[in-house]
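Running log. JK asked me to keep both predictions on one page so they can be read side by side. First protein, sequence followed by its tokens:
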Amino acid sequence: MISRKLPINEQRFHLCCLIQKLFLNHVVIFLTFLLLSSFVINLEPIGASQLFDIYKKGDFRYIIDSLSGKNDEEILVKARTAFAVGDRKLTISLLSQLDEKHLQAASLYYSCGEYIKAGEIASTYIVNSAFSGWLAIYLKAISSAALGANTYEIWQDLVDSPVGIFSAKARLELARFNFQWGYQDSMIYYLESVEPVLLEKRDRISYYYLKGMISYKAGNYQGALRQFKKALRIKYLYDGKKEVIAFSADSLYPHLDKKNAFLLLDVFRENRYYDELINLLKDSAVDDLAKMILAWCYFGKKEYSTASRIFKELSISEDEDLKAEAIYGLAVCDYRRGWRVKAVEKLLVFARNFPDSPLVPKALFTAGDFYQKSDPNRSIEIFEKLTTIYPHSKYYPRALFLLGQLYARHGHRQES
């Protein structure tokens, strides 16, 4: 976290960025209007109770219709609200009615894909070192980049900005240019001064990828793995992740020892990069751990017959943990294929034979839930076993609740 207190203009920009990224959430739309009307553009705010009524009804068009648009400030509020409800055409129409050029308008034009207009407006604001000037340079840079222009010199103008998020973004972009051109030392120079906490998620992915590439080229494969894992664990859908995945699979994986290779594969699995893992492992998975990951990838893709074939191979493994997981995998594959009775019996056999496996509580819960209607007494027996033997399992609270319902429904009043 950054402990320094941000200037008020930078705080407002942080706020506007947050609102713009989350505008589809109705709560944020509501707060957007409240904040814009009350302190960003200093309009007379609508009463709090009236705003709450608008929020409850979801009637955000009221905001647009209630303002006359007699001045630029009201037009901007209407335009922001139109954008928030997804009306791009109305947003652009309202922006065209402005008497003067506003940076808020440049931001909205950019969000609507009108990059030339956004860049034109931003260019008129590039003055001295005032916050509006830095914001204008930033808007010009991202608008020009969206149009495919070379923005290296524009980002250079932002490197020394006192606004941390602008400076961090500029340094990352300059590092990215130098990486593409093969200037390793210049890339390191710009990247070392970037604070990743100031970057948006997609830019943070690029940051960790570049950091990983520095470690990889220095022969520090474990360091590269650390950085790539950070990139892949960021919850954000972005094409830049494909670059990380491709390089990790094709170039980094062969250099890793068994332990670190498994860590990389596990990151792929937890992020559901099933196709990438299958392409990497299907012709070379001789290690049982890799085979297990491959089986769960096919399971994740709903290719249950292929997953079952691999689980069956592993069910005779000498490693007891792998053997237990494989037998569990065979049972859940059958369950997903619709062979429920057979699968549940397999899960109960698994639970008896491997009582120490961390998968047993889940197996018992699945079985108990299955028998609730067809055999409630057996369901009670299974849930009692789960709640008695595995009280620290995450399935315990739900199992206890269902057990209470079963007691009440089938005459076990004292127990319930």
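And the second, directly underneath as requested:
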Amino acid sequence: MRRKKFAKFLGGLSALGLFAPYISLAQTQNDDIQKSLYLLLRPRWEYVDVENNGLSTANAGTVRAQLGIKLQKNPLSFYIENTLVLAFYDHYRPQKAGYELVPDDPRYRITQLWVGYSSSLADLKLGRQVINLDNQRFVGAVNWRQTPQTFDAARVDLKGENVALKPKLTLAYICDRQGVASKLTTYTICGNAPLSYSFLSHLSLKLPYNVKMSLYGYRFRNFAETYGANIGGNFKFNNFGIKYWLEYAYENVHNKVSKIWDNSDYFHVKLDGSYATSVGKPIFGIGYERLGEHFVTPLATLHKFNGWADVFLKYTAASNNYGLNDYYLSLGFAHQSYGKVLAVYHKFTSTKDFPNGGNDFGNEIDLLYTKNILKNLNLTLKLAKYNADDEAKAAGVGDKDVTKAWVMLTYNFGMSF
């Protein structure tokens, strides 16, 4: 059995030979073409246990190998990114039935392939690409998973760098989504998947005193039309550093997937602070996020929000039948030599009472330790523990205790030649 698994692992590594032609291509270009190479290796162990779920505890040993090549001769550019995910320990679903889910199935994918044009007034990009807007609450790359979320899209950024407030207008038309899992991916070019033919518009402004503001309108086809605004900034006072965020959005829900038609809204306010000392930097945060009944964010980087246990990930992406309130506190300490430790506490309730009364989903404690071991090598340890309240059983959401843990190394390397 071990020999068979080792043979699979070596076979996967041999697929890295697919990357070689791109390196050779870049090396043979004319000297006036700027050439860049990017390499990422990310081995990770993930543990998932859901209480009383009728499934075995998942243990997933996976690795992401990613190579990107960029060729640029102003005003044109070309980029290709190859991503290979291998499983060296596969006691998890979808690799084996009967285990808890870890959505990191082995695959090879061209995660980015685009051509671009850049000028002082506009940037254009056509092809498969990453799209991250603001804090990724509505549109993001989900880079936490081994296979990131990318989009087959056309994007234009209109820039006003020499104009007051330095406006930047982003318009993007999404033909297809390449999701983190196979069932979230459109395999035909511009197929008829639920989120194909979505449209994004986003205006960002730079105000005085390090303040940034965004206005946006997103059409998530077959899900919703979302309109909103946010404002955020930071300032320092002696040794104190303060960051703040305030956001509101309104959504016209036409969710053909969950058969829901409604109007809803969203609100998020957060405050983060730090204090610089000679021995390190204490950090703290407090926030409140509210997703009204049926408010959904199907293209978000959902792992960043509402707890790392991802208890409400599918819920807020697809239906959100009872709404969600997330009250959270964070406390940590960062040291230049010893790394960063962070603890986050979440309290979850619904915005609408459950059928049998009550609105308490549960609570969650998240722990993080991260440290740069070497210049290009990072260690990350994470633990998420969600504790369900008895009232949540009536909702069928967030009604089971969940424990997740991760050990991860990330190696990044980049060079121009």
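Observation for JK regarding the second prediction: The helical segments are 2-14, 20-27, 313-318.
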